[in-house]
């Protein structure tokens, strides 16, 4: 089931490395756009949890079971189907504590109908459409385990 909000409560949990240690946390994300996007259009920004910023270059984006870095998505010729969640994986030794957390996913995209990628309007690196739909996708979520 896909929730209405961009940052999804379902799938919000710590993840483990191959030795059974908590390596970080992850959550699902769906853009607030009325149709699908090519990953080459997507611009993933920093993730913020409880005011702590996790750099966009350290997060992984998991789509269809395959993990990609932000840089790899610039050249990924795959279509992100409308309302299909991706998994945003953030490394953090020990993960997050059980309880409520304020999660922010900074996300934008570029729309280009003329062949040349347009620069973002605010210098954020989040694309030229960030100003229309906003970049901060915020939600207070409960981590149970």
Would you write up a description of this structure?
A 5-stranded antiparallel sheet has the order 1-2-9-6-7. The protein has a 4-stranded antiparallel sheet with strand order 5-4-10-11, with no helix packed on it. The chain has a two-stranded antiparallel sheet with strand order 3-8. Helix content is 6%, strand content 45%. It has one domain. The longest helix is centred in the middle third of the chain and has 4 residues, at 70-73. The chain has 145 residues and is mainly β. The two termini are 20 Å apart.
Sum this structure up briefly.
The protein is mainly β. It is built from two helices and eleven strands.
SSE arrangement:
Elements: E1 7-16, E2 22-29, E3 37-38, E4 42-49, E5 52-54, E6 60-63, E7 66-68, H1 70-73, E8 79-80, E9 86-91, E10 99-109, H2 130-133, E11 136-143
Antiparallel strand pairs: 1-2, 2-9, 3-8, 4-5, 4-10, 6-7, 6-9, 10-11
Please give a handful of descriptors for the protein shown.
single chain, about 140 residues, mainly beta, 5-stranded antiparallel beta sheet, 2 helices, about 5% helix, globular
Structural Rg? 15 Å
Secondary-structure element series? EEEEEEEHEEEHE
Strand order of the largest sheet: 1-2-9-6-7
Can you tell me the overall shape? globular
Total DSSP helices: 2
Query: What count of structural domains?
Result: 1
Number of E strands:
11
The helix content is under 10%
- Oligomer designation: single chain
Overall mean pLDDT stands at 85
């Amino acid at each position: 089931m896909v929730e209405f909000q961009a940052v999804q409560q379902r799938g919000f949990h710590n993840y483990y490395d191959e030795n059974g240690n908590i390596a970080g946390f992850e959550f699902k994300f769906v853009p607030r756009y009325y149709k699908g996007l090519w990953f080459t259009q997507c611009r993933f920004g920093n993730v913020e949890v409880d005011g702590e910023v996790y750099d966009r270059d350290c997060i992984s984006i998991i789509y269809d079971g395959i993990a990609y870095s932000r840089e790899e998505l610039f050249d990924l010729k795959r279509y992100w189907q409308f309302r299909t969640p991706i998994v945003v994986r953030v490394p953090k030794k020990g993960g997050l504590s059980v309880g409520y957390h304020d999660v922010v996913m900074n996300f934008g995209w570029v729309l280009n109908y003329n062949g040349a990628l347009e620069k973002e309007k605010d210098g954020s690196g989040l694309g030229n459409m960030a100003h229309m739909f906003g970049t901060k996708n915020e939600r207070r979520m409960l981590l149970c385990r």
